[in-house]
Design goal:
Layout (H helix, E strand, L loop, with lengths): L2 H12 L25 H10 L2 H5 L18 H19 L3 H10 L8 H11 L6 H12 L10 H8 L14 H24 L10 H7 L3 H21 L9 H19 L2 H23 L6 H10 L1 H10 L3 H12 L2
Helix pairs in contact: 2-5, 4-5, 4-9, 4-11, 5-8, 5-9, 6-13, 8-9, 9-11, 9-12, 10-12, 13-15, 13-16, 14-15
Length: 337
């Protein structure tokens, strides 16, 4: 008996009926023989963590652009925090932790340089718009591995595609594991962005409405603990009632959404970050125009995409893969004497 079979037998014992068992996966776009040691989701996790796009996340900023302090989050450290929160919730629910981890590690792999500013620029420029979750799918299926993609399991791609948004009306992942990552993403970024904003001294604890802190907790650790515990408790209750939906209790959900709205108003769309976003957007806009008008300056890989799929797509793929520092470096090379 190979190791994978043993792991799959363990999944039968420890993963709840509503969870995603590896042996029941819908498979990959292109058929592959099963690994003797790893389940399909373990293989996917390894492929994502070893790909070039994943490594570039360390130089892509989360909220604060071009930070000077190693303690600020980057897109990579955010990804790791999402994976850890997700695995904790997944274990509390009896779900497939390997699937959760694979989705979490790949969920932001298509993000642009300069945090959400880059996404806004490309969304305004491209004829069909731009969203980082859809771009993550493009990166993992069409751009990575020299254009052949990573051939990931359909459940992993589904979880990555539907991880964004926080509205109850938005389409959800078809697996509970994917839904867990969606909540883990929000739990991680709202709380670590508070932490970074306090460090940057553009936010102070007394600024946060007291009624929110009384419900969720007055420290970083307490808030995450409250949200994780409540998510496990409420989701287990949902499952017992036959509702396959990850969620929070009404009281916690309302406070969490209020906290998230507060962060959008005071931090994400605040004056300081708006000024920095305008600088970043200017750089990306100029680079897009330059490469759109000088297709021959694109690297060969992206030049071929530009020829086969259109200049908008080739330039967007090139820019979306850049880290903040590389983007600034290219801008200097082109426009600064």
């Amino acid at each position: 008996m190979n190791v994978r079979n043993i792991i799959e037998q363990r999944e039968e014992k420890f993963i709840i009926p509503a969870g995603a068992k590896s042996k029941d996966s819908l498979g990959r776009q292109s058929f592959e023989e099963l690994d003797e040691v790893r389940t399909c989701y373990m293989v996917d996790r390894d492929r994502i963590i070893h790909c070039k796009s994943f490594r570039r996340l360390k130089r892509k900023t989360q909220v604060y652009i071009k930070t000077w302090n190693d303690h600020y989050r980057t897109r990579l450290t955010h990804t790791l925090e999402v994976a850890q929160v997700g695995r904790t919730i997944g274990r509390g629910l009896g779900l497939n932790e390997d699937l959760i981890e694979a989705i979490a590690l790949g969920h932001d792999i298509g993000h642009v340089a300069f945090a959400h500013s880059g996404e806004e620029v490309l969304n305004e420029i491209l004829p069909n718009g731009f969203s980082h979750n859809e771009n993550s799918i493009r990166v993992l299926t069409k751009l990575e591995n020299n254009g052949t993609g990573l051939n990931l399991s359909k459940e992993v791609l589904d979880g990555i595609l539907f991880h964004s948004g926080f509205s109850s009306t938005e389409q959800k992942s078809h697996t509970l594991e994917g839904q867990v990552v969606k909540y883990s993403d929000k739990i991680a970024y709202v709380n670590h962005d508070i932490d970074d904003s306090l460090r940057a001294k553009i936010l102070f604890m007394e600024d946060i409405p007291r009624n929110i802190l009384e419900v969720l907790g007055d420290t970083h650790g307490r808030r995450i603990d409250t949200l994780v515990r409540d998510c496990i408790k409420q989701t287990n209750s949902n499952i017992e009632e036959g509702k396959l939906q990850v969620g929070l209790s009404k009281k916690i959900d309302e406070s969490f959404k209020e906290l998230r709205n507060f962060m959008f108003k005071e931090v994400y769309n605040g004056k300081l970050l708006r000024n920095e976003r305008d600088k970043a957007k200017f750089i990306l806009e100029q680079l897009f125009k330059y490469f759109y008008n000088h297709q021959d300056k694109l690297p060969e890989f992206y030049r071929n995409i530009s020829i086969n799929e259109g200049k908008h797509q080739g330039v967007a793929d090139y820019l979306s893969g850049m880290s903040d520092e590389y983007c600034i470096s290219i801008f200097k090379d082109i426009f600064i004497p």
